[in-house]
Write a structure and sequence with these properties.
The protein is mainly beta. The chain has one domain. The protein has two helices and twelve strands, in the order H-E-E-E-E-E-H-E-E-E-E-E-E-E. The protein is globular.
Length: 173
C-alpha cells in the first residue's frame, strides 16, 4: 500500500510541475553561439572578395537566457528555380565560443556544437522572392530564420519563414 501512495505522490508532483510551468526564469549563457556567414566586402575595403566571418547571437557568456525570449538567426539563400522545385534543405553549423567576448573570426576557442538541418520544402515556392540574373535566369532569394529557444538542459530550434513557424529544425550533435 505504501508503494501505491508513494507512486501517487510522484504523479501528483509531476502534474503540479506541468501545471506550474518552468520554475527557472533565467539561465546564464555558458558560451556564445554563432554561425559562419559569407558576405561581400564593403566598397571601402577595396577588395572584391567574399569575406567569411562569424555571426553571433546577441547573447554572450554570462548573459541571462530565458525560454520566453528566443534568439533569432536571420538567413537567406539564393536558389535556382530547378532546386526550388525539388525541395530545399540547408545545413548550418552552430558554433560556440567560451571566451568572454565572441570573436569576429574563427579562433582556437571556437568549435562546432552541432549541425542544423533546415528543411524549407514545406514552404510553397510561390512565397519565395523571385528574381532574374543578368543572363535572364530565374532564381529565388529565400529569407528565413532559425530560432533558438533555450530551455532546461537543451536548445530547441524552430524554422520560421515570414514570421510563420514551419516546424522544428533537426540538430545533429
Amino acid at each position: 500500500m505504501a508503494v501505491v501512495l508513494h507512486s501517487a505522490n510522484v504523479s501528483s508532483g509531476a502534474v503540479q510541475r506541468g501545471q506550474e510551468g518552468n520554475q527557472v526564469d533565467d539561465r546564464m549563457a555558458r558560451c556564445s553561439y554563432g554561425v559562419h556567414v559569407r558576405q561581400k566586402a564593403k566598397p571601402e575595403d577595396h577588395c572584391p572578395e567574399i569575406q567569411a566571418s562569424l555571426q553571433w547571437c546577441p547573447y554572450e557568456e554570462g548573459m541571462p537566457l530565458n525560454a520566453s525570449d528566443p534568439i533569432s538567426f536571420p538567413f537567406y539563400r539564393v536558389v535556382s528555380q530547378k532546386k526550388a522545385a525539388r525541395g530545399i534543405v540547408f545545413h548550418e553549423q552552430l558554433l560556440f565560443n567560451q571566451a568572454p567576448t565572441a570573436p569576429e573570426t574563427f579562433d582556437q576557442n571556437t568549435a562546432k556544437l552541432c549541425e542544423l538541418e533546415a528543411d524549407l520544402s514545406k514552404i510553397p515556392v510561390a512565397l519565395f522572392d523571385k528574381k532574374k540574373n543578368s543572363k535572364g535566369q530565374t532564381y529565388y532569394r529565400v529569407a528565413f530564420e532559425l530560432v533558438l529557444i533555450p530551455s532546461s538542459a537543451t536548445l530547441v530550434f524552430e524554422l520560421q519563414f515570414n514570421g510563420i513557424s514551419y516546424g522544428m529544425v533537426r540538430s545533429r550533435y
